[in-house]
Every structure is written in C-alpha cells, then in structure tokens.
UniProtKB/TrEMBL annotation:
Annotated TM spans: 20-44, 142-169, 189-215
Residues of the ABC transmembrane type-1 domain: 20-208
GO molecular function: transmembrane transporter activity
Compartment(s): Cell inner membrane; Cell membrane
Gene Ontology CC terms: ATP-binding cassette (ABC) transporter complex
Protein name: Polar amino acid transport system permease protein
Protein's job: Part of the binding-protein-dependent transport system for glutamine; probably responsible for the translocation of the substrate across the membrane.
Main subcellular localisation: membrane
Topology within the bilayer: Multi-pass membrane protein
Amino acid sequence: MIENFNRFVLTNAGALLDGLWVTAYVCFWAFLLAIVLGLIACLLRMRLPYARVVAIGYIEFCRATPILVQLLWVNYVWPEVFGFPQTVTGAGVIALALQSSGYLAETFRSGFEGLPKGQREAALAVGMSRWRIVSRIEAPQVGLVVAPLVVNQLAVVVKSSTLVSIIAIPDLMYQGLKIVNQWYEPIEVLTTIALTYFALLFAISRIANYAYVYFQTKFGIASIR
C-alpha cells in the first residue's frame, strides 16, 4: 500500500496540486458571483414589486434544477442562446454561481425580514434614500446574522465543484481521474482526493461554527444556522 501510494500519489503530486488550485479558483469566483447574484435577487424580490415575479422565478429555477443539468446547459446551450463564446472554466463558475445564488437569495431574505421594521421607518422619516438604508443600516446587520449560513453555502459550492470535471475543467477530481485512468489503481488516488476534500470541508465547517459563536458573543446577534 505504501509503495503504491508513493508511486501513484507522490509522483503525481504536481498534477494534483494544480487541480487543487483550479478547484480553489473556480470555487472562489463562483461563490463571489453567487453572493452578488443572490443579493440582487433578494433585493429585487423584496424592494421592487414589479420585479418580484421575475426574481421569484429566477430563485426557484436556480434551486429546483440539478447542478449537473445547469452545468451542461451553461456549457453547451448558453453560447448558442447568447451568441458569445466562453471557456469551460467560465461555464463552471457560472453554473455553480447560479445554483448557489438561489439559496443565498433566500438566506439574505430571511436576514432582512428578521430586522425590526422600525429601523426602516425611522430612516425614511429622517430623509434617507432607500439605497442608503439598505447599504448603511440593513446590509451590515444582515451580513452578521446570515454569515454562518453563507459560509455553509461555500461548503456546498466546494462539494458541487467535483462535477465540473465532466466538462473537462482540470480541477482536483479531473486530475485524479486522469491519473486513475493512466495507472488503473484507484484506491490510493481517490482516497487522497477524498481526504483532501474532507480537510477543506472540515475547515469550512469549523469557520462557520466559529462565526456563529463569535457573532453571538461579540455583537449579541443570534445568527441563523
């Protein structure tokens, strides 16, 4: 077992590290885009009545369609529909962001709805614009309240990212399967990949729990879990 590990894992450590970097790159940009899209969808649903139906449709579509279907649709159909080329990495980022944005939109909405309504009424009474109310008063509080759930959604993005290898994005899973297909020895390689993902997700879980405790003790805010 040790000899096989040295042969199949350590000798291919460079390829696995390259794949890990691609995984981190895809997850980072997908998560960042998901936060932006989720916040926009949330605000459209809550603050603009004429855009409410569109926002609800977007959120439900993102949540109700499987990530694999979204991934293949964005990679193969998106360029044909919108008429511009894109890289497979871009397709992976967009697909992961779309699904996560639907869940994050509902997470943000729960945070906004949990705020005292008197804050908005008082701010409007002193002449603050709606944008300043959201950006200066409501958004900072919502960020503290929903932080643990947002971090947990990052874990979902990381787990879902294992599927991007299907469209030939050279992430950690892709590199691992490539090594397995070359040597026909899956145990050592796939075990290494599983432990790597476990380490990443365990760290994210610890960060989420720390954020929950920190915001409760530091700010006296009961974060949503």
